[in-house]
Amino acid sequence: MPTSSLSILFSAPNKKSSATPATDAPSAAPSSSVPTPLVVIDNTSDSFATVVTVKFGDRLGELLDTVAALRNLGLNIRRAKVSAAGGANKFFITDSKSSEKVR
Question: CA angle, 36 as apex, 82 and 96 as ends, to 5°?
């Protein structure tokens, strides 16, 4: 049976520097770039839950932000597979009111 999935790519807003030309004092440290998260929503691979896969790099707090966002959307996290090495994290979610897959 073919599986279908939806990929959503979120991009972080660009931070514009208000620094003046190079005649100013040098900056203390180079700015680190924010990784662009990749979100894949799969409603076919699990019979009881919608699978949301999120890959955002190894950034402190991103996992907690993702969990909070899913909860704020009225979703229950039934199961999760979390990668400690900054890989993809899978969340098996259901609607909080009906406990059914998200449609």
Answer: 50
Query: Which stretch of DSSP H or E encloses residue 72?
Result: helix 62-72
**CATH (domain of 95):** 3.30.70
Q: Is residue 66 part of a domain?
A: yes
- Evaluate whether residue 27 is within a structural domain: no
80 half-sphere exposure, CB direction, 13 A CA radius: 14
User: For residue 57, what pLDDT is reported?
Assistant: 72
Q: Tell me how far apart the 2 most distant CA atoms of the chain are, in Å.
A: 63
**What are the tokens at 82?**
């979390």
Name the domain count of the chain: 1
Those residues of the chain that have pLDDT short of 50 are 1-27, 29
